[in-house]
Amino acid sequence: MLILAGVFAAGLLAGFLNVMAGGGSMITLPLLIFLGLPAAAANGTNRVAILAQNIAAVGGFRSQGYSDFPRGLAYGAATIPGAVVGAIFAVRVSEGLFRVFLAAVLIVAVLGLLMPKKRRELSGKPPPRAHLFAYLGFFAIGFYGGFIQAGVGFLLMLVLHQLLRIDLVRTNMHKVLIVLIFSLPALAVFVWTGNVVWTTAIALALGNSLGGVVATRVSVKGGERPIRFVLGIALLVMAVRLVV
Predict the structure, then answer these.
(1) Using N-to-C axis directions, what is the helix angle for 95-114 and 224-243, rounded to 10°?
(2) Which of 32, 42, 43, 140 would suit a FRET pair with 185, their CA atoms being 20 to 30 Å apart?
């Protein structure tokens, strides 16, 4: 029970981070592996929580008056083929190679934190051909999300906020729906191959869902400022996690 309580607490933090910025799975996925789950089972177990979290988050944004299902569904549909391929790859890759990939993700995240950022205002109008590049990006993000998932929120924020010039609150609104959509086929692959530990998954899902709902309220009521703050904290946590 103590372990499940710890898993719930980790899910609570991860759900909040995932909805506000991203990177929550960089907490839960290493934790599940640390608790003794094989990499594929940890990956699949984490997907149950991600799915529940984003169902709750989509409902949370909608209850706050934020929803754009036609556009979000179109974005999400572009991620599905990549997500299926990525999930199949994830259940077939060796334990050691998966750990190498996960470590590489953490390193890239830290490099992204250290790189200088150019300050610019969003025009509200995306540049020419932005939507073409965005849909190509969604396919690639789908593959990454199906394979590892950890940090996929940052990639989606890059496409939605930086490329398509969508404000951060609506970026998060679209993000949770997109992740919900590609999580369905990805999770199906993990369930089909027996890579879900359901007791742990349920405890994690309850934490993620509650954290996600809290994050939607903070995101909508606080606007962009708290999102930027949590984004910075999430990146810092990843950097510390890498060092540890």
Answers:
(1) 130
(2) 32
